[in-house]
Amino acid sequence: MEVTATGDAAHAVAAHVPGLVAERVASRLAAQDPTLWGPAAEAEARVRLAWTGLHETSRPLLARLAALRAELAAEGIDRVVLAGMGGSSLAPEVLAGTAGAQLTVLDSTDPDQVHRALEGDLRATVLVVSSKSGTTVETDSQRRTIEAAFTAAGLDAARHVVVVTDPGSPLEAAATAAGYRAVFTADPHVGGRFSALTAFGLVPAALAGVDVEQVLDDAAAVAPFFAEDSDANPALVLGAALGGTAPLRGKVVIRDAGSGLFHLGDWAEQLLAESTGKDGTGLLPVVVGADAPELAAPAADVLPVVLVPLTDETDEGGEDAAGAARTEVTVGGTLGGTLLLWEHAVAVAGRLLGIDPFDQPDVESAKAAARGLLEQTPAPEPPAFTDSGVEVRGPADLLAGATTVAEAVGNLLGRLGPDGYLAVMAYLDREGRAGDTLAGVRAALAARTRRPVTFGWGPRFLHSTGQLHKGGPAVGAFLQLTGTARHQVQIPGRDFDFATLISAQAAGDAAVLTERGRPVLRLHVTNADALAWLAGVLEGPAA
After folding, report:
1. CA of 65: how far to CAs of 121, 192, 209, 215, in Å?
2. Per its UniProt record, what Gene3D superfamilies does this chain match (predicted)?
3. For the purposes of burial, counting CB atoms within 10 Å of the CB of 212, is it exposed (0-12), middle (13-18) or buried (19 or more)?
4. How would DSSP label each residue in 411-471?
5. Is 2 left (phi over 0), alpha (psi -120 to 50) or beta?
């Protein structure tokens, strides 16, 4: 593993790593000591630390996975669709993408994205239903819909479904009763965002053709270094750089510079945001491209993190325009080793930040609000006004007399303070036209505001940065984008369809953010032309 830190990040390493070594934080973490984060966190940590040994404890899965994949291949079943959210989908996406394996990740309730998953060859499809409890509304709705599609196609649906869940969960009981092809249970003493090397990460990846044994081997090769109480421990270095800058550089801008690890930033985004974004503090992960405005002249609260190939010659950091050492962290490693590195480092950063890195106290709020809206089925809130096919909603004090989308967006951006960030939350089809149309919006808004801008696809981000939005520093401004889907997809056994579900999730999230005093502007596009027009408005003039 290679981790380097320069500028303020190097100062944080020098200030904190000797103390971490003296307190034996690395060896205690590897030994699963739950007292590392203080008395208030001890009960949660006691049942959340098994991830430190997964490179060994997950190995019994390997033979069973190889046998199941061979069985499926013999029956011509080689298309893997994963229904899961957050930690159940992000790690498998990284594992499969890095290996070049085909895995259809269904982590959305957008009707068009669900419809696309149903268009594939169902006879050649195995559905992996991945949920710790099985009660997650997105995953349950996806399972019901695809299982019904198997049956409608004349297939034995049970033979096409594999389940990954926690032992003793409602899903395990239901899957066993239904006679699903296989049921895998994961270690219950591992939280979702730390579950990359459990069955949640390994089962869908292995069925898609990933050599998951090599992933475990890579993690095992570096695990001893992460357990060393040494100044050279890369996990301590990264943890100190993330959580120890003073003043805190709390906007962690992650750029991939050819690491070869597919969408690792998206996985690290959840790990950082859910682990640290609480009690009014936290590290905001900002996943960017090569030419991100945030990195042209990083603000004082920005920590640039660059993901590099393991064999790359690391940059010594250079200097900024004033001649000071440029602040930057570079990280390089194998896939399995890098996953384990970030998990250790975030746990260390949590100790430095003084928070419990294993709970997520604010994640449930948006879910509860969405459930309430589904149960009440209230009439849609009328827009304040409509401009060129875009319906505008927001509190009166935010709209403040605006009569155009451009004016409303300007009002929202005007709420950004010198330490603020903008979160774009798009409840749209990320794999369809919306993904292409909105591709330049994040960077353009960052250039306009000269502040960090995150872009999350809903409801996927609710299981990721949603925790930090509500529990982290109250410095964010929120731009919600919704739209009218082309397809209608019913959910068997439910009195709502996917369009109603995603609408309730968006409205519930906006309501909770507003209740907590966060400024939220909601823009609903009624057609594809309106979306293209809106993208142009958002990209707007640079400041």
Report:
1. 22, 21, 10, 14
2. Glucose-6-phosphate isomerase like protein, domain 1 (3.40.50.10490)
3. buried
4. HHHTT--TT-EEEEEEES-TTSHHHHHTTTHHHHHHHHHSS-EEEEETTGGGGTTHHHHHH
5. beta
Q: What is the CA radius of gyration of the chain?
A: 23
Task: From 58, 91, 131, 49, select the one nearest 350 (Cα to Cα).
Answer: 49
User: DSSP characters for 138-195?
Assistant: HHHHHHHHHHHHHHHTT--GGGGEEEEE-TT-HHHHHHHHHT-SEEEE--TTS-GGG-
| SS3 label, residue 373 | helix
Closest CA to 276 of 359, 187, 212: 359
Q: What is the pLDDT of residue 435?
A: 95
Instruction: Give the chain's domains with CATH numbers.
Output: 2-27+229-314+324-353 (3.40.50.10490), 59-215 (3.40.50.10490), 362-539 (3.40.50.10490)
Q: How far apart are CA 89 and CA 139, in angstroms?
A: 11
Quote the CA–CA distance of 354 and 515 in Å, as a whole number: 26
pLDDT at 259 over 90: yes
Give the residue carrying structure tokens 């971490």. Answer: 20
219 neighbors 251 (Cβ within 8 angstroms): no
> How many CB atoms neighbour CB 443 within 10 A?
18
Question: Structure pTM?
Answer: 0.96
Measured in degrees and rounded to the nearest 5, phi and psi for residue 297 equal -145, 80
- Say which residue the tokens 């409608």 belong to: 152
CA angle 423/429/430 to nearest 5° reads 60
User: Nearest CA to 292 among 456, 441, 446, 457?
Assistant: 446
Stretch (H or E) spanning 387: strand 385-387
The closest of 467, 480, 481 to 519, measured between CA atoms, is: 480
CA distance 71 to 248: 52
Statement: residue 377 has pLDDT above 80: no
- The strand pairing partners of 105, in sequence order, are 82
Please state, in angstroms and rounded to a whole number, the distance separating the CA atoms of residues 98 and 218. Answer: 14
- Tell me the residue ranges of DSSP E strands in 301-365: 302-308, 328-332
Question: How far apart (Å, rounded) are the C-alpha atoms in residues 241 and 232?
Answer: 13
- In the chain, the largest separation of any two C-alpha atoms, in whole Å, equals 70
pLDDT (tens digit per residue) in 19-62: 999 999 999 999 999 999 999 999 999 999 999 999 999 999 99
In the numeric block, which tokens belong to residue 45? 């940590």
Residue 349 confidence (pLDDT) above 50: yes
Span 181-193, pLDDT tens digits: 999 999 999 999 9
**Cα 464 to the center of its chain, rounded Å:** 4
- The count of other CB atoms within 10 Å of the CB of residue 433 is 15
Opening angle at CA 400, ends 397 and 406, nearest 5: 125
H-helix or E-strand containing 63?
helix 61-74
